[in-house]
Amino acid sequence: MTALEELVDVMRRLRVECAWKAEQTPASLVPYLREETEELVEAIGAGDPAHVCEELGDVLLQVVFHAAIAEERGEFTMDDVAAGITAKLRRRNPHVFDPASLGRDADSPPLDATEVNEIWQQVKRDEKGPRLRSDA
To answer: Is 135's pLDDT higher than 80?
Structure first.
């Protein structure tokens, strides 16, 4: 069992055996998600890798908590979350996963960061169309 699988299992158990965790909803968790995200941003700014690692764990806990609630409701699972972001990364990075779709091959020069970002943004626009709002 991976550490991530263990975390998911621990959260499932806590949702059953811990009254506070059992009564939480996505809406009730929003303040904690915001707080943990802000603490992560501060840790990144401080440049302390150990603190960043800890705060990433706290943000991950929020993701797993929300996914556990969704799983209980039959909406989606943590695996669905991971599969969704993996598919998005593959789609939005065709220069890595499908260079031929860009007319590129093994002899093509590497793209710079600006070119990569332009591809990401174009794929995102194509996916989201008029509902495009953020850089997610």
So the answer is: no
Residue matched to tokens 């800890």? 54
| Residue 9 belongs to a domain | yes
What is the rounded distance in angstroms from the CA atom of residue 35 to the CA atom of residue 30? 9
Q: What is the pLDDT of residues 41-97, one digit of tens each?
A: 999 999 999 999 999 999 999 999 999 999 999 999 999 999 999 999 999 999 999
Instruction: Please choose, from the candidates 128, 33, 57, the residue with its C-alpha nearest in 3D space to the C-alpha of residue 88.
Output: 128
91's CB contacts (< 8 A; 6+ apart) are: 123, 127
Domain count, the chain: 2
Q: Are 62 and 12 found together in one domain?
A: yes
Are 12 and 71 in a shared domain? yes
DSSP string of 85-133, one letter each residue: HHHHHHHH-HHHH-GGGGT--TTSPPPPHHHHHHHHHHHHHHHHGGG--
